[in-house]
Amino acid sequence: MGLIFYEDFGGKVVYRCRKCDIYLTHQCHLLSEDFVGSSGPAELFHKVYNVRHGPATRRHMMTGGHFARDVFCKRCDTLLGWYYELADRDLQQYKEDCTILEVNLTRKETRENSECFHPDV
Ligand SMILES: [Zn+2]
What we know:
By secondary structure, this protein is mostly beta strands. Helix content is 0%, strand content 49%. The chain has no helices and ten strands. Strands 3, 4, 5, 6, 7, 8 and 9 form a seven-stranded antiparallel β-sheet that branches. Strands 2-1-10 form a three-stranded antiparallel β-sheet, with no helix packed on it. The protein binds zinc ion.
């Protein structure tokens, strides 16, 4: 059985998978809390870790056509949200390469003395 490494990039306010508690991202990557997912409120993040992406599919959303991929937890395989690959409209292109996480499927945790860092920014 191989070892699986999960990433944890720190942060004072971190987001975890509600089901298996794996680290997903931290608040510095939060772009907007103003989204709606299939289970209720959702949040847009610039970077999310420890997830895998499903195949790209064409979707028609309220804000126009997009190519998006489902986003699953790497550990427990819960469908957590989706990833924006491409947006048709210029005004929506800020979402490209960003990930939506459903609030009901994640858990926010505040940690003391944990500085976030940005390994790839
Ligand atoms: Zn999980």
